[in-house]
């Protein structure tokens, strides 16, 4: 006898399986061929259906992403842009550096952002009350900011000695950028400007900010900041960052407040819940577009690219410093801040080189701590 095996009968006229079975090995029945084919067909159909749904889901995600990108593009296109950055970026420049300015125009008429009702610059109409260079490395692992006191007495190109905040009054954003570049030797990639009205509006739009007062602080002509946590709306926030009278170290304590406020504002508006929520991102960009002006080199595509690269950025990692000075003094009848060029040169070189070790080691006494007046 030959070997035992199982086979299905075949219709000799059609060549098709009949579905009948022969058991040539006792006790070992064969699986019906027709039933096995039905199971295979059902499995194949389920796989095809799953593939179709996967393609539909991917297409839907792509459509939503494109719609979101279009919305962001349109919002970013509304941001007010000003001519401020001249020259070609040096090949040795690292990371991205912003010059952030807060203008002291004493008017309820907004001059920055989409909501501006007047020009961002009118000769003699406003000065820079907040002057800060902010830097982030290309890998986003290093971030720091250095404030320059508004009363710092320096050379302003074409105008001689004056307080640095006068540069904006003399020649607007372009002269302000040129002045800070010549003072620091740092290449400035972009400019962001907000005036008092825009500052109030933006603060209110994000729901205000909480700050902590280690002790009660009198506010001349207003009242007293109580000890503890105080919620600041736009008007109170403006009073907080502008006050210097009544503070132990005057303008230097005011700079600490400005830095502290920006630290708290950044922590609130740029947290993970915001950056990972398209609706919150859109709302945030709406607020920025309404109140902030930037240089015309910072186009919509560049802003989207930069914003995406900052999606995992931790605002709490941003370290704040104040440029070295020799304290206050007088120039004629003007109270000024005396710039200290030698240590400042070391700081600015470390700033440009992303040398955070030198900044931490040499200038820890100029860094913002957790205690702010």
CATH superfamily: LCP protein
Q: How would you describe the shape?
A: elongated
Tell me the strand percentage band: 15-25%
Supply the number of helical segments: 10
User: What is the number of domains?
Assistant: 1
- In the CATH hierarchy, what is the architecture at level 2? 3-Layer(aba) Sandwich
The top-level CATH class is Alpha Beta
Give the number of DSSP strands.
Answer: 17
**Head-to-tail CA distance between termini:** 104 Å
Tell me the CATH topology: Aminopeptidase
Mean pLDDT: 83
Helix content: 40-55%
SSE topology string: EEHEEEEEEHEHEEEEHHHHEHEEEHH
Largest sheet: 7 strands, mixed
Q: Looking across the biggest beta sheet, what order are the strands in? A: 3-14-9-4-5-6-15
The helix-and-strand class reads alpha+beta
| Uncertain stretches | 1-24
Integer-rounded radius of gyration = 33 Å
Keywords for this entry:
373 residues, alpha+beta, Aminopeptidase, seven-stranded mixed β-sheet, two-stranded antiparallel ribbon, 10 helices, disordered N terminus
In short:
The protein is of the alpha+beta class. The chain is built from 10 helices and 17 strands. It has helices at 33-78, 166-184, 196-205, 234-242, 251-269, 272-275, 278-291, 300-309, 341-353, 356-362; strands at 7-10, 17-22, 80-82, 96-103, 128-136, 143-147, 153-156, 160-163, 190-195, 209-213, 217-219, 223-225, 228-232, 293-295, 319-322, 325-331, 334-339.
């Amino acid at each position: 006898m030959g070997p035992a095996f199982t086979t299905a009968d075949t219709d000799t006229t059609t060549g098709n399986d009949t579905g009948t079975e022969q058991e040539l090995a006792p006790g070992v029945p064969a699986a019906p061929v027709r039933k096995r084919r039905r199971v295979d067909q059902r499995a194949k159909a389920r796989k095809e259906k799953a593939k179709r749904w996967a393609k539909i889901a991917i297409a839907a995600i792509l459509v939503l992403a494109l719609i979101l990108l279009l919305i962001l593009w349109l919002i970013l296109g509304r941001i007010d842009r000003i001519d401020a950055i001249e020259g070609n970026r040096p090949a040795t420049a690292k990371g991205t550096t912003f010059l952030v300015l807060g203008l002291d125009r004493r008017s309820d008429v907004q001059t920055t952002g989409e909501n501006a009702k007047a020009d961002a610059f009118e000769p003699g109409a406003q000065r820079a009350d907040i002057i800060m260079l902010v830097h982030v490395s290309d890998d986003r692992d290093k971030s720091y900011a250095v404030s320059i006191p508004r009363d710092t007495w320096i050379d302003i190109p074409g105008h001689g000695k004056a307080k640095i905040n006068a540069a904006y009054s003399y020649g607007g954003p372009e002269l302000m950028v040129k002045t800070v570049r010549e003072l620091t030797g740092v290449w400035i990639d972009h400019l962001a400007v907000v005036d008092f009205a825009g500052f109030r509006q933006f603060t209110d739009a994000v729901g205000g900010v909480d700050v902590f007062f280690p002790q009660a602080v009198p506010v001349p002509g207003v009242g007293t900041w109580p000890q503890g946590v105080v919620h600041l709306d736009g008007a109170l926030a403006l009073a907080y960052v502008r006050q210097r009278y009544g503070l132990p170290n005057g303008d230097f304590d005011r700079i600490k407040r400005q830095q502290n406020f920006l630290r708290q504002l950044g922590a609130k508006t740029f947290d993970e819940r915001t950056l990972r929520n398209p609706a919150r991102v859109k709302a945030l960009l709406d607020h920025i577009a309404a109140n902030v002006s930037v240089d015309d080199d910072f186009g919509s595509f560049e802003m989207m690219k930069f914003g995406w690269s900052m999606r995992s950025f931790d605002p709490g990692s941003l370290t704040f410093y104040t440029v070295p000075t020799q304290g206050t003094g007088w120039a004629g009848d003007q109270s000024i801040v005396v710039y200290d060029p030698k240590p400042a040169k070391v700081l600015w070189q470390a700033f440009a080189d992303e040398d955070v070790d030198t900044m931490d080691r040499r200038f820890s006494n100029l860094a913002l701590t957790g205690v702010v007046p």
